[in-house]
Input
Amino acid sequence: MTSQLDLWRDSIVKINTPIKVAIERLNKVGIKIALVLDDDYRLLGTISDGDFRRGILSGLSLEDTVEKIMNKNPRTVSEDAGRLEILKVMTDTKILQIPIIDKNSFVVGLHLWDDISVQAKYSNVMVIMAGGKGSRLHPQTENRPKPMLLVAGIPILEHIIKRARSQGFNHFIIAINYLGEIIEKYFKDGQKFGVKIEYLHEDVPLGTAGALSLLSSKPERAFIVTNGDVITDINYSDFLEYHTAQNAAATVAVHTYEFQIPYGVVQINGLEVESYEEKPIISSLINAGVYALEPDILDYIKEPRYRDMPEILEISRDLKKKVIVYPLHESWIDIGRPIDLEIANKNKFREG
Output
């Protein structure tokens, strides 16, 4: 049981703080909670990962204030609460962080589940699609497959594996095609990375889903599929547990993408101007290239032919299967262009 004095102070936001700023604060601190305090350090509310995701799904703008998404009645414990009492509260309420309040109702600290629990181990498989040619990154991909390009001195693929390993995953299957022997030679069976690695050999490119037809057997439980060119600070264990809790057939991680139109936009009715907005920001949810799938979904991918994941998701929806989204607020980048690789190296994404 540890009170993270420095971390919880860095997670403080005001009630009028924009959601976008609070997300940046949450990602920087890395404790998955923001505390909304007044000027006297009294607790007004808390904001969890789930609160952010529900806010995004409800259509709120990132410029809206945290007051619209915060939990105004958060669970707290007193500063003299014992370890067993705190564990029981966290277990009973299934919360991972709990603010500490003194006798005057001032926030004095924060208890984190990670500090008093052992990391869970997952037998779920993670499949990494790493067969792409990376044509837009030529000439950097002329003699090196895209997933082996370096970010902060480490191959993209290694970032993915180490992050997942730190969160309890230890069985990986990598689909390879273009210059796949370089990947296989580097990672081998995964022993030096403390994990088990197997390979799917694509004779021809099979897209972001087709390689799943090469699996020798159907996984026994839900599994994760990720593109091999995506670097993100996602918590894969949270993602998988979210998928399971929702009883979904497939879960798609989505990320908010904002684009500012560089001109004023005019709305008209016939010839008359109805409204004018100067350089508006358009916000959309985009596919982040990370999926959680139930084993039965492989029944739709029996033949080894080119398939991308959206095709499989559409089949699932047509069959009335539950396909849901998992909004990411964490850092995320798809490394498809030279500028993306440059940005990733500047950001130096964390491994875990």
Observations:
- The CA atoms of residues 21 and 348 lie 20 Å apart.
- Residues 126-347 form a domain with the Spore Coat Polysaccharide Biosynthesis Protein SpsA; Chain A fold (CATH 3.90.550.10).
- The first strand starts at residue 12 and ends at 13.
- Residues 1-5 have pLDDT under 50 and may be disordered.
